[in-house]
Amino acid sequence: GKLISGLLGAEIVGRVSLDGENGAARTFAELGEQDADVVIDFSHHSAIADVLDYCKSTGTAAVIGTTGHTEEEKALIFAAAKEIPVFYSGNMSLGIAVLCRLAKDAARYFPDADIEIVEAHHNRKVDAPSGTALMLADSIKEALGEDMRYEYDRHAKREKRGKNEIGIHSVRGGTITGEHEIIFAGHDEIIKISHSARSKELFATGAINAARFLFGKPAGLYGMKELIG
Predict the structure, then answer these.
(1) Interatomic CA distance for residues 77 and 219, integer angstroms
(2) Hey, how many other C-beta atoms are within 10 angstroms of the C-beta on 126?
(3) Residue 110's pLDDT is what?
(4) pLDDT value at residue 73
(5) Given a cut of 80, is residue 45 above it in pLDDT?
(6) How many CB atoms lie within 10 A of CB 164?
(7) Mean of pLDDT over the chain
(8) Cys-Cys with 68: which of 45, 186, 199, 216 at CB 3.0–4.6 Å?
(9) In whole angstroms, what is the distance from residue 117 CA to residue 196 CA?
(10) In the sheet where 190-197 sits, what is the strand order?
(11) Alpha carbon 42 to chain centroid, angstroms
(12) What is the pLDDT at residue 155?
């Protein structure tokens, strides 16, 4: 939030934060209706109902950069997109959007490869796997078919790897901003595609780009695919 405010400056017309610091309102009711074009949400997945209720009641577009939403919360996002423009992405980085495309292409060229995704984040990140890892897995699934399934815990299974699975592994430690690597392990050859985030500013910049992209758009669900397309 501080990064976005710093980059946008006077373009910010209102802020909501539970701690109420730096002049921010504690609730949307306290904030009241503002002359805003878009709400950018980088809070907590449990706040999504309040965010969307405010956006729908004021006719304001929404950029949702928060991850970890439950299936019920995702349903709220998809329903809101029928009334207002909603930009929803597990990662706001342009580099990750490109990585999704590369992963999709690699999966098509190497359909028989065993695919593993390894992601690493700081020790305060709550959701695992990351929303970005799931974005990457979804891109691969688009290329290979809906019968692909995600495997998070082989320790519990204790059996050989299935051909129709994508392994997803999470590492949490220190101050790692975000690391994602996709491994395509074929017969006698391995391809690795990776992305490393060196600061959180790139996510703030991506969210601002998404907000500008959303301006003037009709109601609907948008994502990085549409932004770079």
Answers:
(1) 12
(2) 10
(3) 94
(4) 96
(5) yes
(6) 11
(7) 92
(8) 45
(9) 14
(10) 149-151, 165-172, 114-121, 178-185, 190-197
(11) 10
(12) 82
Neighbouring residues of 201: CB distance < 8 A, sequence distance ≥ 6: 3, 7
Whole-angstrom Cα Rg for the chain: 19
89: number of Cβ within 10 Å: 26
CB 189 within 8 A of CB 56: no
Cα–Cα distance list, 19 to 15, 16, 92, 131, 137 (Å): 11, 9, 25, 25, 35
DSSP secondary structure, 12-73, as one string: ----B-TT-GGG-BSSHHHH---S-SEEEE-S-GGGHHHHHHHHHHHT-EEEE------HHH
Q: Using the structure block, give the residue that is written with the tokens 């074929």.
A: 186
Residue 120 parent element (H or E): strand 114-121
Residue 35, amino acid: D
Q: What is the pLDDT of residues 162-201, one digit of tens each?
A: 889 999 999 999 999 999 999 999 999 999 999 999 888 8
Give 196's strand partners.
Answer: 179
Q: What percent of the chain has pLDDT over 90?
A: 70
Q: Name the residues annotated as catalytic.
A: 121, 125
Amino acid at residue number 32: G
Q: Which of 12, 13, 14, 11 is CA-nearest to residue 29?
A: 14
Mean pLDDT for the stretch of residues 144-168: 89
